[in-house]
Automatic annotation (TrEMBL):
The gene is serC. This is Phosphoserine aminotransferase. It comes from Prevotella corporis. Its EC number is 2.6.1.52. Residues 4-344 form the Aminotransferase class V domain. The keyword Amino-acid biosynthesis applies.
Amino acid sequence: MKKYNFGAGPCILPREVIEKTASAILDFNGIGLSVAEISHRSKDFQPVMDEARALVKEVLNVPEGYSVLFLGGGASLEFCMIPFNFLVKKAGYLNTGVWAKKAMKEAKLFGEVVEVASSADENFTYIPKNFEVPTDLDYLHVTTNNTIYGTELHKDLDVPVRMIGDMSSDIFSRPVDVAKYDCIYGGAQKNLSMAGVTFIIIKDDVLGRVQREIPTMLDYRTHIKKGSMFNTPPVVPIYTAMENLRWIKANGGVQAMQKLAKERAEIVYGEIDRNKLFHGTVKCEEDRSYMNICFVLNDEYADLQDEFFKFATDRGMVGIKGHRDVGGFRASCYNAMTIEGCKALVETMKEFEAKH
Ligand SMILES: *Cc1c(COP(=O)(O)O)cnc(C)c1O
């Protein structure tokens, strides 16, 4: 049976990218060695690092003056590295859920944190709008896609301060106005690569403003200076990122990815809105994530929860259980999810509706 991977992360990657990684693990570039067992400083691996970093810039149209890093630690370590390196006095955070709160918690260790707005009152099922942003912030931190609740900022905000974006789960799914950000980061395992590497796009000239001592490994300047090779980088996930970036580029870049994302979202939300059994948890249409589509059973059908999960699993739908904070179902539709996969999910929902 064909399986459709709707998992939120680690996530689906293009088959071709997985195959190329598998092949490079067995024999990298025909050198008779695995990409996993050669020196990261060798003449064989260096081009991988160089190309992956260059492709991030090219695919996302990153302006001059930014560096791209591939580090370990996940987006969660960035929650602390960001304020360590950028928070002089006061930072703003847009509270759109669990990840934003975790980022805020770390920032409080380093300075004053202003919660500019929050959607906690409705369990983060919408994106706050029309909020005031103090002009004296060192930065405003935003989570552009809220993986757990299925809300997304589809456009980069217009605010009077510099932004920092956690783009873990929507990077490379749309064009980004990088110039508005001092830093963009994320765990790669949602839409870029396998788990084990974090991508960071950082504006060079904003570093060095904080007075505090920064441990060597947590200082972005260390990694910029050493070309993202201060210590041994996660070589295999970086290889996969490079192959995936090649795939994105060959398939029309982020413009094409955005178009596909919209198409997928229309198919799945269309069915959620039509089907008598289900409703979407995010009501405001413009806040609905293209990446993580959350839906629940209507109250009168609430006891069908386990039955639908089994019904869908039996038809090859993998990873659609909703996050425990939201319940219900979540169909994650990252770049590699096909229209065919979305249609298969819709068919499953229709069949289940007919049964009840
Ligand atoms: C998954 C996720 C994180 C955490 O990423 P790790 O790499 O596991 O630390 C942070 N932010 C968002 C938006 C996420 O989806």
